[in-house]
Amino acid sequence: MLISQSLTQVYPSGGQELTVLQDVSFEIPAGEFLAIVGPSGSGKSTLLGLLAGLDRPRSGRVILDGQDLSALTEDGRARLRGEKVGFVFQSFHLIPTLTARENVQVPLELRGEEARVRADELLDRVGLAARAHHYPAQLSGGEQQRVALARAFSNRPRILFADEPTGNLDAATGQSVIELMDRLNHELGTTLVLVTHDTDLAGRARRMIRLMDGRVVADSAA
Amino acid sequence: MNRTKFVLAMAWRESRAARRRLVLLTASVTVGVAALVAINSFTDNLRTTAQSQARVLLGADIQVRGHKPFSSRAETLVDSVAGCSALPCPSVSTVISFSAMAYVPRTEGTRLVQVEGVDGTYPFYGSIRTAPREAWDRLQSGRNVIVDPSLLAALNARVGDSLALGEARFVITGTIVDVPGDVGVRTAFGPRVYVPGQYLAETGLLVAGSRYDYERYLKISAGDPQPIANGLKKQLADELLTVRTVADNQANLDRALDQLGRYLGLVALIALLLGGLGVASAVHVFIRRKLETIAILRCLGAGSGQLFLIYLLQAGGMGLIGSALGALAGIVLQLALPAVLADFLPVDVTFSVSWPAVFTGLGTGLLVSILFALLPLLGVRRVSPLVVLRRPFEEVRRAGIDFWKFPVYLVLAASVIGLAAFQVGNLVSGLAFAVGIGFILGVLALAAFLLSWSLRRWFPRWLPYLWRQGLANLYRPANQTLAVLLSLGFGTVLLSTLYLVQANLLHEFRVGASGPRANLVFFDIQPDERQPIEDRIRASGHPLEPAVPIVPMRIHSVKGRSVDAIRQDSNLVGEDGKPLDRWAFRHEFRSTYRDTSVSSEKVVLGKWWTPGHADTTVIPISVEVEVAGELGVTVGDTMVWDVQGLLLTTRIVNLRKVDWVRFEPNFFVVFPEGPLAVAPRSYVALTRVPDPAGLGRLQRQVIQRFPNVTAIDLTLIQVSLERLIARVVLVIRFMALFSLATGAVVLIGAVATSRYQRVREGVLLKTLGATRSQIAGILAVEYFALGSLAVLTALVLSGGAGWLIMKWVFDTPFAIPVGALGWLAFGVVGLTLAVGLLNSLEVLGKPPLEVLRSD
């Protein structure tokens, strides 16, 4: 489903170059639930960005569902994300000016599809059918993250990237969100890539990659 | 839902919350569109009204005009055209107008007036309104006059008083309320006095050599007057007469209104383009706030083109709303324009909404919104989806040259040229306008760059902390130096240029009570009156300048070609190939003779003749350089002059440049002493009387004794001129207010550009222990520096522009009114400080934790 080949990323920093990722390689088969863990600054978010095609690596390649991301333009990668990728972020990143329903509709509308029925169905599945017309600011953190989950699954993604999805939630709400994610992963057969520094959360994944100073230091079944 | 629908839906949904944030964009466009719609709609209305009253404005179907009574051939032709065989002809009316001194014996007041001798049928169309109402109808019934109310005020007279014109006495029976087609400012130079034509001869003022206009008004009972007038024009081609019809009048009026509308519209366009800068900064701020939303949409698969369109639609939508509000305001504002322009308008304008003006305003506003939104919107394409993961870092990393900016710059420049060309009506002026604006903005941008650069290079580390922090704000990343300098500087350049030109013009016209120049001029002094009048002036104890002789003459031939032959030449061009002006060949020149040049003129080509040694067979003459150009003559050319029947052969020996603005007797043509000594002539005598009472007394003494002599009090003319200029300036200032209002909106926008950064910095400083007054101090230093530099740059620019205008348009010296400009500078810096600090209240009021948490 996803192949990372010798990924290296370098950012300029104070006139010098800072290597954030170095020679990271692994493969993720379809339907896998993978956790990427590591301390702050180990390169987790950078790796997630590269895997999802949000950025280009300095060297190496990412092949997502058979498609080499380095061969695509920025808009080409955006289209690929719209078709095959879902996201869940630590800060939810809902669009503040859209209602919950409209937020869930966006990925499908981008593909030119009718989205209202699907959005309502997903909101129902995450338990928020009654709050479809609310704006993000009118929802609690847990509710916002559930809307984000509904949005992430709305385009039936082949792969879902989650960046510290429970980082901004209390323990109980975080637990319910992660269970929901797990359930959707099972029901829809979506590949799940979870970035976290929470080892308990990572323990729910079937495989765990540990990063340290931009390198893979462990790749094991959880 | 297809992709286009998605873009539309997103633009709509996004805009629900954005409208409040884009209010600056809306306001930036509103003011300019309001001005544009008001001006264009008003001139449209003016044109329509003028068209509907075309006949009333002329008062007849055809007007024939000359500077002396018509020849009997011309009289017969005119009368036959009007269908008259016997006199008096009911369809022909005669008006004779000239300047003369009016004198009211009861108050002993004298004043130069414009006498209009009319007969009973004038005007054929429309009516002259008087107070009392019946005064006009009774005018012809005796020795009555109807006068401008301003004359009564000036002479301290009232209805019923006796009024002397030359040797005749009249009774003031009423005052003028309204004359169709009359322009208010006209009375500034001489109040009108309507006199029954039959008694004009009794004044004794219409003698040979005096200057007056002789007009015949014709009413055509059947058929189109235009072909009749065309026939008359052909038949009267040899006479020095002008034939005008309602259509000619209309065409002239249309041209004048067109010019008025176009140039006032240009001032409105400046306000609108200035608003464009406001649009750009509003969109810039908006996009910065939307970075995260854009990044999320990128993550979810939105393409850069789609995102660009979503935000362009929002900017366009808000621009359209701003334009619509502006159009509405413009329609209302239009009601205020007649009050401002009243003195320049020949008709009372009826109010109606001009839809073409409204749609032009809407279109221009929308276009400006979209064009100026393009540049900041280009940034939308470059927002990385990574912003959602690592925002501050990504914002900096994405900086770099965007090559799409260059075509956008080109489109912007082309559009500004196009809009200006559309408004002015020709491409060259449009181009000049755009280049001028570009130059001003370029210099302001250069000043901003130099300020930032020099501060960084030579930072004054010795200054106290608040000053250092405030000045450092001027060059740190995301500073507002450029935005504030452009928005503030542009409006200030306009205002101060306007002020400089006005102040210099008034200064030039001012005779000044303490100056050495003459302030009382006596005209039309006959040779036998010269000595007694000079004696009278000397006896009053006032200085007397040498009397200046005036000899009326016409051109007989130029370089061997007779004037008739030249005038019939359809291809009238000078030696340099430029077309010649027929006016100059028909003009009655009032020349003088003397052997030396005077201080208000300068020889630019050739030499002055040696006094007393002028050739008498071929007389050397001096010609004013502009009129020489119009006649197509230069030094060495011969001209034959017709001096009331006597032909004099002359050769041009020099060309003079004359400073016409000085109130001194100046002439197109100067002869040497001698050859004209026997020609019929009159004299002008000049003196200086410092006290107003003495001035009135001397005028009265001379006029009572010599009624044909005209006295002009130059201080009165100067006051009238100042009033006239003040009216013109009021109109221009009224328009400039739009630029200032837009400038304030743009300034708020410019300050808002960096407001979020300032809030964060202010809060961090507060967290570290800074007090509110310290933060306010830092901001005050920043805005004071910005305001001062903007004003300084603007003053240098407007000084240059003012100097150019005074030199090339008015050809007069240039001085800088330091005091007044100091006040302007003070005002603008004050405005900057006020807007800056008011906009930053958020920085001062916000609790630190609120901001730090949201980071």
Structure notes:
The complex is a heterodimer of chains A (222) and B (855). With 222 residues, chain A is of the alpha/beta class. Chain A has a single domain (2-221), classed as Rossmann fold, CATH 3.40.50. Chain A has helices spanning 44-51, 74-84, 100-110, 116-125, 141-154, 171-188, 199-202; strands spanning 2-13, 16-28, 33-37, 59-64, 67-68, 85-88, 159-163, 191-196, 207-212, 215-221. In chain A, 34% of the residues lie in helices and 30% in strands. In chain A, helix 3 (100-110) packs across helix 4 (116-125) and helix 3 (100-110) packs parallel to helix 5 (141-154). In chain A, the strands form two sheets. In chain A, strands 6-7-8-3-9-10 form a six-stranded mixed β-sheet. By secondary structure, chain B is of the alpha+beta class. Chain B folds into four domains: 1-61 and 263-436, no CATH class; 62-219, no CATH class; 459-513 and 717-855, no CATH class; 544-687, no CATH class. Chain B has 27 helices and 21 strands. Chain B has a six-stranded mixed β-barrel. A six-stranded mixed beta barrel of chain B has the order 12-14-19-16-18-17. The model of chain B has no long low-confidence stretch (mean pLDDT 81).
| CATH class placement of chain A | Alpha Beta
Q: State the order of secondary-structure elements of chain A, H for helix, E for strand.
A: EEEHEEHEHHHEHEHEE
Strand neighbour order, sheet with most strands of chain B? 2-3-8-5-7-6
Biggest interface goes to: A-B, 38 and 34 residues
CATH architecture of chain A: 3-Layer(aba) Sandwich
Count of DSSP E strands of chain B?
21
Number of domains of chain A: 1
Per DSSP E runs of 2 or more residues, the count of β-strands of chain A stands at 10
Helix count, DSSP H or I runs of 4 or more residues of chain B: 27
Structural class of chain A: alpha/beta
